[in-house]
Amino acid sequence: MANVGDTVIFKHHVCTIAEKREKYFDNKDYWELHAVFERSLKLFVACDAAKPPIMRPVMQKQEALDLIDSIAGAEPADVDDNLPATANTSSLKQRHMKETYDAYLKTLSPKDLVPIIKTCHERTLAREENGHHATAVDKKYLDLAEGLLCDELAISLDIPREEVQDFLVKRIKEAEAKLNE
Prior knowledge:
This is CarD family transcriptional regulator. By secondary structure, the chain is α+β, with helices and mostly antiparallel strands.
């Protein structure tokens, strides 16, 4: 059960429950949510619809650390292996990648942001090694997935949002070193 003052994830937004509005719309009670990182954003969700995965508690600190530690061994999204045999045009490949990334995003799970991040990062590194830039699709989804994950991790780990990425990189390198021992 959620309460006024709780910090929750609504869809992919980190929010504080500001108030409960009784019989606010269609004779239903609604939670008024204020986005933590998008200061002007207010969201409303019917109390009876405020259940996982639509609205859930922020990850606990240990859950967040476990998720970060899993990134080193995580599998990338399966964007290339699922291409239809007729997929020889770049626009078809781009559309397939978008659909794959969107499917991960729709789960509303922070764990499903990891394959997006891993795939986009690996594809970008491979393209850069060949003298190319990241694709617009990879850049868009990498920025989106990293932003969503970092927002929640900032709250879960109780560190400033701008320090989360450095924390992630350091912790992932430590996890990779342990995997390679």
